[in-house]
Amino acid sequence: MSNIEAGLSLLGEAEGFYEDVLKGYERGSWNAVVRRAQEVVELALKGLMKMMGIEYPKIHDVGALFAEQAELKKLGIDSKVLAEIIDISAYLARERAPAFYMEKTYTKEQAIRAKEDALKVLSIAKDISEKLSGV
């Protein structure tokens, strides 16, 4: 499997997890929304890095690494967008375990933020993946 194929596969998984985000939101399962939103962001960014030929670390917060590599590879992503990706990735990575283990109870507002953040990163990732794959 090529890096492009592997990256697109990771992006496909991210899209599937976003469907889980929406299902969790419909159920009112705010913790599940936060957890799955984090996974969407992580897989979307790792998918892009895979497409760029970057071996990413097996950690949950890869926003800063993605931003650094996007600048090195001259992908033309606005610095404000990269800063937002870094913030989203860091925030959701911090909330991943507390959401999953029910160590913290999330509100609807926090779930909405997580859902919107995941969609934002996923949308950006899909746009970039089209450029990287030549579609």
Task: Report on this structure.
By secondary structure, the chain is mainly alpha-helical. The protein is 78% helix and 0% strand. Helix 3 packs antiparallel against helix 4. The protein is globular and about 40 Å long.
What would the keywords be for this entry?
135 residues, Four Helix Bundle (Hemerythrin (Met), subunit A), single chain, mainly alpha
Beta content comes to under 5%
Given the C-alpha coordinates, what overall shape results? globular
pLDDT below 50 for ≥5 consecutive residues: which ranges?
Answer: none
Distance between the termini: 18 Å
Number of strands: 0
**Percent helix among the residues?**
over 70%
Strand/helix succession: HHHHH
Produce the secondary structure layout.
Layout: H1 3-27, H2 30-51, H3 63-72, H4 79-100, H5 108-133
What would you say about this model in short?
It is built from 5 helices and no strands.
